[in-house]
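Internal tracking record. Fields below are filled automatically when a chain is submitted to the structure queue. Please do not edit lines marked as system-generated. If the sequence contains nonstandard residues, flag them in the REMARKS field before resubmitting.
Queue: standard
Priority: normal
Entity type: single polypeptide chain
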Amino acid sequence: KKKFVATMCLRKELSNVQKGGIIAAKKLGHSNSRISAVVGCSHSFVRHVWKSYELKQLLKKQTGRPRILNEAECKHLKHTSG
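SYSTEM-GENERATED OUTPUT FOLLOWS
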């Protein structure tokens, strides 16, 4: 898996901690421009990190097939089958 190199961030690669800081700042309501000034990268890269985070959160909620039986139904099946 290739890491995304932030060419818009003065030719340096941001660490996961820095990307986490961008996400935390966005959650607190800071603007892309303000975050980019603090982190030292472009506001478009801040937007890229935030969109990637949102997509991961969306996909995380939708992963896997829904269960056929819920937990109570599984217990009932175990008790009735043996």
